Amino acid sequence: MPKIAVVQHPPIFLNKEKSLARALDLIAEAAAAGSDMIVFPETWLPGYPMFIWRLAPGRHKAQTEALYALSQRNSVDLGRNDLTPVQQAAREHGVVVVMGHQEIDSAFSGSTLYNSVAIIDADGRLLNNHRKLMPTCPERTVWGCGDGSALKVVETAVGRVGALICWESYMPLARYALYAQNIEIYVAPTWDSGPFWLNAMQHIAREGGCWTVGCATTCHVSDIPEDLPHREELFPDPEEWINPGDAVIYKPFAGLHAGPMSEEKGLLYADIDPEEVKASRRRFDATGHYARPDVLQLRVNRAPQPPVLFE
Prior knowledge:
By secondary structure, this protein is an alpha/beta fold. The chain has helices at 16-32, 61-73, 84-93, 172-179, 195-208, 231-234, 275-280, and strands spanning 3-8, 37-39, 96-104, 113-120, 126-131, 153-156, 159-163, 185-190, 211-216, 219-220, 241-243, 245-250, 256-262, 266-271. The chain has one domain (3-280): Carbon-nitrogen hydrolase (Nitrilase/N-carbamoyl-D-aminoacid amidohydrolase, 4-Layer Sandwich), CATH 3.60.110.
């Protein structure tokens, strides 16, 4: 049975190179413990832009722009092979890696950022890179909207894996699009935590009949680099847990399997059996015997949406 490791360590906030080094250490640690799949939270590289929830762009223009520029400089550029070290580590250790990252568009604008999640197989191949369809509230001040081209479930060494980012998991049609691809392991990298989020993860495990993994970046104020611009203004309480993490795994159509880990740094480990997925859908199969395509149908546009076509 595959063993999953869910990362509940913070990155080196807004430092891509140091965070990459930490990621490689965590992959090695999880692999040494026998893991077959390692899951990182939302925009773990180079860190979730938490400042958007603490600074009002209109009132704190200078602070927001300085932090945005730092975030932009440390974002992942797939065109420059920034994920290659992670792919090499996946291949070296023979593990599947799901990596939440902040991506910069180098193909067109060279500037716009996206909230993305990459699925890397155990042979190091990048199987899918999904950009968040709809950033939430102030997230729209830093991220563009993704398209449906990577709304996919992919076959990996541990089973069929798909991912939606944070509140995309509240989008019923996006969930349904993944269920319809025989998903076995549903990964939800997030910044959210707490009982409402955990309830959502349990609901998805039941609704989709799939293993469901939720993971946010646990972060204490002490994890924020001392030289971060406007650090004291953003994080005045030295005892604050900015995010408790709440890494969790739920069984298909059942209950809690592992976690949640709260206000704790570490790796959450659990063995899973993908074969339980099919058995769980005997009672309820959202896109199978419980579907009514004569009444309700979903159309998914997977065509890439480039801003310009050169002919």
